[in-house]
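help with this:

***
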Amino acid sequence: MAAIPLAEQVRRNKAATARLFLILFLILFAMVFAIGYALGYPPIITAPAALIFGLIYLAMASSFSVQTVLRAARAREPNMEVPEERRLVEVVEEMSIAARIPMPKVYVQESNDINAFATGRKPEEGVICATTGALRDLTREELQGVIGHEVGHIRNYDIRITTYAIALIGVIAMIGEIVWRALFFGGGRKKDVHPAMILVAIALAILAPILSRMVYLAISRSREYLADTTGAELTRNPEALASALEKILHDKPEPHHGDRTVASLYFANPFKRKHANSLWSSHPPLEERISRLRGRPYEGPPPQQ
C-alpha cells in the first residue's frame, strides 16, 4: 500500500467531514419536509421554523463548558516537581509552537490507562489533559506524537465541530419525538394527506435519529484520522505516533468508570479498544490508524528477541 502524502490526507479528511455534515442537514430537512406534508403544513412554513430552531439549538450547544469536561475526567493541574508532569508541559509547549497556536492549559488525569484528550472550542481556550499512565509508559517521542494529535484537534476546531454535530443529532431526535407523538396522539391536520406520506414521516421519525448518530460517529472517526495526520506533520515523526498507538493497542487498561459523554474526546476510546465496532465506535480501529501512519498494512508487533 503506497503511503498517502500528509497534505492529501488532510484534504480528504476535511472533504469527508464536509460531506458528512451535509448528510446531517439533508436528514434534518428531509424530516421537516415529510413531517410538514404529513401533518398538513406547507414546507414554506415548516422549513424556516426548523432552520430557526436548529440555529438556536446550535447556539445553546456552543455554550459547552470546558470545566464540565475536566470535572468529568477528574483532571488536576500538573505538579512541576514531578519530572513526567514537567515533561508533559514542555511537550505541550513545543507542539503548540509548532502548530502556531496559543499554549493550551495542561491537566493530568490519574489513570493507569495510556490516554489523553483535548477540549476547548477554539485555540485560545485550548486544554490538553494526559493520563499518568501515558506519562509513565510513553517515551518522549511517543508523547510528542500523542500531544501533536491533541494539538491537531485544537488547531482544527474539532471540539466545535463535534459539539455542532451532537447538537444537530439532538434536533433530529427531538423532531422525531414530536412527530411520533403528533401522528399518533391527535396533533396536526393530516386528514387530507396521502397515507404514503404519513408512512414516510413515521419511517423518518424512527430511522433519522439512528442514521444521524451513525453520521456523527463517522464525523468523529474522520476527525481522528485528520488529527493523526496533523500530529505526524507537527512532529515530523509519524512512527512515534504509530508506536504510541501500538502500545495502546496491546495495553491492558484498567476498567474505566468515567463519564461516557466525554469518551469521544480521548486519544483512544477508554471504553472500547481492539474490538470496537467500526460503525458504532467514535474512534477508528487502532490497527487502521497505525497502518495509515506507516503507509502499509499493520502486521502486529515485532517478534520479541
